[in-house]
């Protein structure tokens, strides 16, 4: 059996098209490589966007889908009901810092790109920069980022976002939400296994993390 560590490093950024086979599982694999070890600090997802613009609704759609899935391993901000958007972004970031001690934040947002990149979901190190596509000056968000390319950039970006197909955005949101949910199960499993072992036994803790990946990966992808 080929056992791989749950947190084996992959490239700093990765892109997967939402229609690719096992897109959510591949997304989960790469998300896990970016997260801190379980139990070391709270992991917070900030889903940025608004339901007043079809193209910009990717973030809150993901947040709403995850709320329905009742994912508990991570903390979530930004849903269709309570969005995190340009007007309240600074306030929400301050709230996150107040509510969580030294959080590891993953910022997620829609973006525009080249025609051949539309439908791709990107995940990687470093913050997301909301508003960049429509020339808004907003604070960068997160130690890691998730971006979904929902339409083509280069001309009348605000109009393009307003006229993006909801079907595309919803399909991408489902893949991202499924990927985060899959990652949360494996992340929680690793945390529970490590907590059950002696703090001094690093070899057993390492094996626990590897075991969690193999134990849940097959069931999750079935």
TrEMBL record:
Domain of life: Bacteria
GO molecular function per UniProt: peptidase activity
UniProt keyword terms in alphabetical order: Hydrolase, Protease
GO biological process, one term: proteolysis
Keyword Protease among UniProt keywords: yes
The keyword Protease is annotated on this UniProt entry: yes
Name of this protein: Spore protease GPR
Organism per entry: Bacillus badius
Lineage of the organism: Bacteria, Bacillati, Bacillota, Bacilli, Bacillales
